[in-house]
Amino acid sequence: MNLSPALDCYTREQLSARDAQRMAEFIAFGPIVFQVSRLMLKLGILQLLRDSDTGLTIDEIAAAKGMTHYAVQVLVEASLTIGTVLVDKDSNRFRLAKTGWFLINDPATRVNIDFNNDVNYEGMFRLEQALNEGKPAGLKALGNWPTIYEGLSQLPRHARQSWLAFDHFYSDSAFDEALNIVFERKPKTLCDVGGNTGRWAVRCLKHDPAINVTVLDLPQQIEMMREATQGLAEASRLHGHGIDLLDPEAQFPTEPHFDAVWMSQFLDCFAEDQIVSILGRAAKVMDEHSRLYIMETLWDRQRYEPAAFCLTQVSLYFTAMANGNSKMMHSDDLARLIGQAGLKIEDVHDNLGQGHSIVVCSKP
């Protein structure tokens, strides 16, 4: 199994027996830990402690926030044992701990909290059912669709906002570097497969005034893309093609000929047989001059261990909420599927943005 140097910690025991016991209890109370920490953020208590030079007592926090002594006490005492705040034993004044600082200041953590609370939290109770059925059993907490993708445009407002913020945060962070990689070959036509709201397509149009981009996605997603790009000066070079990519008979358009095919945070939305089908259909519209660019957050190629942790947990979002049968991929699995689809890996670019890799593929 490939593992980046930062992930070598997964090959040996890291904790003492006492630390392992505490971690086991931390897991047991995980849902409470999450909600306490989310509320400490939402209610501004962590921010209040950060802005205090000498720390604050429970009564001072309660007065500043207009809360009861009891409400603040249960949240702060729980946070003390979670590790997001610290206390001075002599003065009973609480101050921010390092973990609390990251909860406030790390944008990835904030995006992940909103995503897990607004999209995943209720539905994750049905994870076991999803694993047994191979279907997103938890999705019924948000709406009645076969997969979350059919329902994106109809998600409850807060869930849709958090889903889009999560998706855009991770993809957008790599776009600048990705543009340099894709446009090194000076393509004139690009097919954006699973283009969602068209954010990457628009970046391409603005990057190169000669490029024409065709977005392939579900018809309802194409409508979202058209709404998001309405009035754009470059819109004449942006085209939409509605397609159900889960239908193995649904072929990619052959006109225009595509110099580049782009798939960003896309293949992780499908089961392995579906990935081979999609890649195989992409290969049919490629020639020896075309290149396929697959941008994914491959969990085994991460520079920092917390990223691998996040990605393997996100896999369970796909299980319970999205489609029931896909995951964040290991690079060995992706390479195998690329080969099965009749393509070869030409190059791999790692450590782009928030831990992305771009796998460049061509026809043998």
* Spatial order of the strands forming the largest sheet: 5-4-3-6-7-9-8
Report how far the terminal alpha carbons are from each other. 26 Å
The CATH architecture of the largest domain comes to 3-Layer(aba) Sandwich
Q: Any idea what the radius of gyration is?
A: 23 Å
GO molecular function, one term: O-methyltransferase activity
Domain O-methyltransferase C-terminal: 188-342
InterPro entries: BVU_1015-like_N, COMT-like, COMT_C, SAM-dependent_MTases_sf, WH-like_DNA-bd_sf, WH_DNA-bd_sf
Protein name: Methyltransferase domain-containing protein
What does this structure look like?
This is Methyltransferase domain-containing protein. InterPro entries: BVU_1015-like_N (IPR049480), COMT-like (IPR016461), COMT_C (IPR001077), SAM-dependent_MTases_sf (IPR029063), WH-like_DNA-bd_sf (IPR036388), WH_DNA-bd_sf (IPR036390). It is a single chain. By secondary structure, the protein is of the alpha/beta class. The protein has three domains: 5-105, Winged helix-like DNA-binding domain superfamily/Winged helix DNA-binding domain (Arc Repressor Mutant, subunit A), CATH 1.10.10; 107-165, Methane Monooxygenase Hydroxylase, Chain G, domain 1 (Up-down Bundle); 169-304 and 323-362, Rossmann fold (3-Layer(aba) Sandwich), CATH 3.40.50. Helices cover 47% and strands 14% of the residues. It has 16 helices and nine strands. It has helices at 17-28, 30-42, 45-50, 58-65, 69-82, 98-105, 107-120, 127-133, 148-151, 157-172, 175-182, 199-207, 219-228, 272-284, 305-322, 331-340; strands at 85-88, 93-96, 189-193, 212-217, 238-242, 260-264, 291-296, 344-352, 356-362. It has a seven-stranded mixed sheet, with helices on both faces. Helix 13 links the parallel strand 4 (212-217) and strand 5. The longest helix has 18 residues, at 305-322. The chain is elongated. The model has no long low-confidence stretch (mean pLDDT 95).
